[in-house]
């Protein structure tokens, strides 16, 4: 596969604590829905919710997966998430290091031992 023809995707979400970010990451990697999750935080999020502007500290998760697993990852992420309306953004990967992209696909093939 050439780097220009990748099926890799990055899924972004946020959560309200480092512990919750760790828990979600482990669930999704253990289920082979994500090959890797990087956690950044805290980050400051500014948003409008229920008619009022809010500023909150959150932790951002960058989940690496394959296009074939995006729907299953999204469904599991939403089911496991503590937010009523979690952020779930799916970003295409337009290129990258071929062996890494192949690893992402390989790690997200199949199903988990303990779903």
Automatic annotation (TrEMBL):
Transmembrane segments: none annotated. InterPro entries: Ion_tolerance_CutA, N-reg_PII-like_a/b, N-reg_PII/ATP_PRibTrfase_C. It comes from the Bacteria. Gene3D superfamilies: 3.30.70.120. PANTHER family: DIVALENT CATION TOLERANCE CUTA-RELATED, FI09726P. Belongs to the CutA family. This is Divalent-cation tolerance protein CutA. It comes from Actinomycetospora chibensis. The gene is cutA.
């Amino acid at each position: 596969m050439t780097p220009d023809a990748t099926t890799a995707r990055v899924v972004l979400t946020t959560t309200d604590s480092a512990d919750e970010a760790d828990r979600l990451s482990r669930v999704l990697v253990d289920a082979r829905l994500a090959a890797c999750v990087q956690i950044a935080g805290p980050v400051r999020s500014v948003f409008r919710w229920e008619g009022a502007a809010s500023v909150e500290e959150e932790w951002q998760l960058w989940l690496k997966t394959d296009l074939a697993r995006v729907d299953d990852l999204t469904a599991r992420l939403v089911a496991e998430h503590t937010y009523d309306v979690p952020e779930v953004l799916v970003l295409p990967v337009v290129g990258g290091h071929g062996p890494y992209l192949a690893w992402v696909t390989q790690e997200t093939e199949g199903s988990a031992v303990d779903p």
